[in-house]
UniProtKB/TrEMBL annotation:
Residues 86-117 are annotated as: Disordered. Residues 98-112 have a biased composition (Pro residues). This is Transcriptional regulator. It comes from Streptomyces violaceusniger. InterPro entries: TPR-like_helical_dom_sf (IPR011990).
Length: 472
């Protein structure tokens, strides 16, 4: 096979460096986070991200960062800020290092409907193609060990381009999942994940690249595990989280280990193993104590509270919820992991609502679920659908079927955009519980719409059930 061409070295972004002025990278990152909060965005910008922008490693920011930078520097385009145009990075006729033209995506997943609707199937296929277009990434999959075959070297040194490809795959999955849910994405992640671990096996990289590859491969395993979780493949999710945990232990990466334990706790709760959920959340908190991120500890306390709620330990759950709110109140900081961009006040309210629901306190569950829906950033369409569905479930359990039907109807409307088997199962449970109230006009209207939607093949949920019992 002909040798793969070396990627051109990144070109420093001197325009962006000038905009930073006399601020240190950490100070400038803090100003970016403040600007994000002003417009309702959540970015986990830190000094390392600023360094990667200024070095040219990030040729074009994701859509959330683009909106923040445009807010900070009104009237400036991406090229004015020193970035490559989005079309040249992801657009039509963009070429990989050794491949034919790769069709670009339709308008980005962060753009609202009406400005060019997103074909999520094309986007998710682009995820797979764009990652595999990278020379060493493609070679890594070719070099991945098969039965009885020793691994082969990719024939080139693994460096910045490969580490960046793994990191971008993780970010791309998260953006698409936030907007569309897991179902159309999961099938496209097997090769990128295999490639990431094959790159680790290839060797030939320096220490800083090794750290990024281990962290990136572990985060990619967690992201793929979450897609499996949300699409109803619980056993697959458990395997991916275990792979990420092993990667964290091998590399000594406390942040990755805390993340793997966090997702394991969430999965255990959904799979009907609340005691395991509590143990995993507590293990995550022990690791996260070294990371100086109150927001991370807040989320982990909520994971513990969720397990305790399903164990009907009301006192323990309330103590964990109080700890979560206290930690959340300390605000964001530079140590907050990038993957926690979803964790704002809306998520805090939504996770607390789930605890009260598990404890059967429907009044409190409804109160917090309503706040979760009202506070949610419009970018997180999947979470809006999730919390709206949970609100409907809590309303019907609390004896308000007409209000439940209205909420369930709003959630049903969102499922044209969100493909999540987990949310569809929850909505199916709500529809089942509402059927005895079918004489109510609002309930009857929702049930008719639901039955029509459920008859479409693409709306069917995967058969593997989550173990969450019905609220009544």
């Amino acid at each position: 096979m002909a040798p793969l061409p070396e990627p051109s070295p990144p070109r420093p972004n001197t325009a962006f460096r000038r905009l930073r002025g006399q601020l240190s990278p950490s100070e400038f990152a803090a100003s970016v986070r403040r600007a994000a909060r002003e417009i309702g965005e959540q970015v986990s910008c830190d000094a390392r991200y600023i360094g990667r922008v200024e070095s040219g490693a990030i040729r074009c920011p994701n859509y959330a960062y683009e909106r923040v930078f445009r807010h900070m520097f009104p009237g400036r385009t991406l090229t004015d800020l020193g970035f490559a145009s989005r079309e040249s990075v992801r657009g039509h006729q963009a070429r990989g290092p050794a491949g034919p033209p790769v069709p670009g995506p339709r308008p980005g997943p962060c753009e609202p409907p009406g400005k060019g609707s997103v074909d999520v199937f094309e986007e998710s296929e682009l995820l797979r193609r764009s990652f595999m277009a990278g020379g060493a990434a493609a070679a890594a999959v070719a070099a991945a060990p098969r039965a009885g075959t020793p691994p082969r070297r990719a024939g080139r040194r693994v460096g910045e381009a490969e580490a960046a490809a793994v990191e971008e795959a993780v970010r791309r999955i998260r953006v698409l999942d936030d907007r569309h849910g897991a179902d159309p994405l999961y099938a496209h992640t097997a090769k990128p994940l295999s490639a990431a671990y094959a790159l680790l096996d290839a060797g030939g990289y320096n220490r800083s690249i090794a750290e990024r590859l281990f962290a990136g491969a572990g985060e990619l395993a967690i992201s793929v595990g979450w897609l499996a979780h949300d699409s109803g493949r619980l056993s697959d999710a458990r395997s991916h989280y275990a792979e990420a945990l092993a990667t964290a232990r091998v590399s000594g990466d406390a942040a990755l280990e805390a993340h793997a334990f966090c997702n394991t706790a969430f999965l255990a709760r959904d799979a009907g193993h609340p005691r395991e959920a509590v143990r995993a959340a507590q293990a995550a908190q022990r690791v996260a104590e070294r990371l100086a991120s109150p927001r991370l500890l807040s989320l982990l306390a909520l994971r513990e509270a969720g397990g305790l709620a399903w164990l009907t330990d009301r006192g323990g759950c309330e103590r964990a919820l109080l700890r979560a709110r206290t930690l959340f109140g300390r605000g964001p900081c530079d140590a907050d992991p990038e993957w926690m961009s979803f964790f704002g006040e809306a998520e805090l309210e939504g996770l607390e609502a789930q605890c009260w629901s598990a404890l059967g306190d429907w009044k409190r569950a409804v109160e917090h679920a309503r706040r979760a829906v009202a506070l949610q950033n419009p970018h997180f369409t999947r979470n809006i659908a999730l919390f709206t569905t949970e609100l409907a479930s809590d309303l019907v359990a609390g004896g308000a079927p007409d209000a439940a039907a209205a909420s369930a109807g709003r959630a049903l409307g969102l499922l044209d955009q969100v493909k999540s088997s987990r949310i569809r199962r929850m909505l199916a449970d709500t529809a089942r519980i509402l059927r005895p109230y079918g004489r109510d006009a609002a309930v009857a209207d929702f049930l008719a719409r639901y039955e029509t939607a459920a008859a479409r093949p693409e709306t069917a949920a995967r058969p593997e059930p989550a173990a969450r019992p019905s609220p009544v």
